[in-house]
Design a protein that fits this description.
This protein is an alpha/beta fold. The chain has 11 helices and 9 strands. Strands 1-2-3-4-6-9 form a 6-stranded mixed sheet, sandwiched between helices. Strands 5-7-8 form a 3-stranded mixed sheet.
């Protein structure tokens, strides 16, 4: 089981979804499918859940995509299917009608960073490392979602460098909601979830719906998809994958 779904709180109002794919909780194909299915179930109008906690097993959130899966190439059609499966996951999280709280412990990298960005609330520790690391692999990821979370200048720095920031700096720039000491993180998130679960559910759902209006631009989303697919076929992306798997420094040629 790569994803577990547990209920707690009054009448099972708090759903906790845990990514369990050691060692780094990578978003492999089965994990993506299981997460997407779990969030779609919570989106059912008959679901009695009022809030979702999304966390990673082993005290770590998510290390991103599965590098071995990315290294497997079958051509443009395969790349489109691969991108679509990630997009389906992010859409399922974003479109979930109840609040999604991310427990961002240890790290959130690449696809894991993008997953965190689709949570409504993000709580981290001061030591948590977060990175829009797509550029390190010759790709562009999180450009659209990141600019809705923080200022354009901060987003540009993260997107252009691929460098990780710690939780303290992430909180200062508004990338995470709050930082909490590691030993208190899950307890704090649970308390927030319990508070939300006691609020009028229709009001909370409407608040989330209103917050989301205007955040999605079809033209920007289309540009993000076409950019990822174009870069997926590039020499530099292939070189980044080769270097990562062989533990060497990549040599990018701009093609």
């Amino acid at each position: 089981m790569t994803v577990t779904d547990e209920r707690s709180g009054p009448n099972g109002a708090i759903a906790t979804i845990t990514i369990d794919n050691p060692p780094v909780n990578a978003l492999g194909a089965q994990v993506r499918a299981d997460l997407t299915a779990a969030f779609r179930m919570l989106s059912d109008p008959h679901s009695d859940a009022r809030v979702v906690i999304l966390r990673g097993a082993g005290g770590r959130f998510c290390g991103g995509g599965d590098i071995n899966e990315l290294a497997h190439r079958e051509g443009p059609a395969h790349d489109r299917r691969l991108h679509a499966s990630f997009a389906s996951l992010y859409d399922a999280v974003r479109d979930c009608p109840i609040p999604v709280i991310g427990v961002i412990d240890r790290y959130a990298m690449g696809g894991g960073f993008e997953l965190a960005l689709h949570c409504d609330l993000r709580y981290a520790t001061p030591e948590t490392r977060l990175a829009a690391s797509g550029v390190n692999m010759g790709l562009v990821e999180s450009a659209h979602t990141l600019t809705h979370a923080i200022s354009t200048s901060h987003a540009a720095e993260l997107l252009f460098t691929g460098d990780a920031v710690d939780g303290a700096r992430a909180a200062a720039m508004g990338l995470v909601t709050r930082t909490v000491p590691s030993e208190d993180l899950y307890g704090y998130v649970t308390a927030v979830a319990e508070r939300i679960a006691t609020r009028p559910p229709q009001a909370v759902r409407k608040a989330k719906s209103v917050l989301r209006i205007g955040m999605e631009s079809p033209s920007a989303t289309s540009a993000a998809v076409s950019g990822w697919l174009e870069l997926r076929a590039s020499h530099d992306h292939a070189e980044a994958l080769r270097a990562f798997l062989q533990h060497t420094e990549p040599r990018f040629e701009g093609r």
